[in-house]
């Protein structure tokens, strides 16, 4: 008996005309969507992608990069001298996947099983800011904050009711926070009562008050009700 081929260049085939099915073929393989997430703020080298995604083997990462490239989601290119290293970056179409990541993150954060203490990548934290930011709470306030996580630096700007986050050196920021992504997430999304203790776990240069104000502009969605069987 002839075996039916069930995979394609970009994952398992569902033989379904719905765009959702094709989207799962492209992004539904394990780690695929997280690879896309890690490239949302700019290109990365192979080793940097592996370091950001704990538990992802080099072999599986290679497969996912090849599949996403074949699907047109990302491209690989070589940076000009003096860097001369190969990086992976999202295509304009690949960048359009951010609302998918945001919607899934907001939806899954409502799960009673969501464990906010698990490891978090720097890019994952920055995208959570873009997802959970409440423009109404920020109002007309303008601020620029910097965040350092090891060798990675980011700048978050809030102005005119919008938040942007980019990989950049935080020169001129009102405050620069150094620590772990998990520590910053605990500060921003934790309750007001433990704010001082969580602040003490981080290094803050500049206006600490600007950071405190920043923490008040975010709120996780309420947990979904778990109904008994």
Q: C-alpha Rg, in Å? A: 20 Å
Query: What sequence of helices (H) and strands (E) makes up the elements?
Result: EEHHHHEEHHHHEEEEHHEH
Q: If classified by CATH, what would the architecture of the largest domain be?
A: 2-Layer Sandwich
Low-confidence stretches: 1-8
- Biggest β-sheet description: 5 strands, mixed
Helical segment tally? 11
Instruction: Write out the strand line-up for the largest beta sheet, numbering strands in chain order.
Output: 7-6-5-8-9
Domain count: 2
CATH superfamily of the largest domain: SCP2 sterol-binding domain
- How big a fraction of the residues is strand? 15-25%
Indicate the percent of residues in helices.
Answer: 25-40%
What does this molecule look like?
A 5-stranded mixed sheet has the order 7-6-5-8-9, covered by helices on one side. The protein folds into 2 domains: 88 residues, Arc Repressor Mutant, subunit A; 99 residues, Nonspecific Lipid-transfer Protein, Chain A (2-Layer Sandwich). It has 11 helices and 9 strands. Helix 6 packs across helix 7. The protein is an alpha+beta fold. A hairpin with a 2-residue loop joins strand 6 and strand 7. Helix content is 38%, strand content 19%.
Secondary structure blueprint with pairings:
Elements: E1 7-8, E2 11-12, H1 19-27, H2 32-38, H3 46-52, H4 58-70, E3 74-78, E4 86-90, H5 92-95, H6 98-108, H7 122-132, H8 135-138, E5 143-149, E6 152-159, E7 162-167, E8 175-178, H9 181-189, H10 195-199, E9 203-206, H11 208-215
Parallel strand pairs: 5-8
Antiparallel strand pairs: 1-2, 3-4, 5-6, 6-7, 8-9
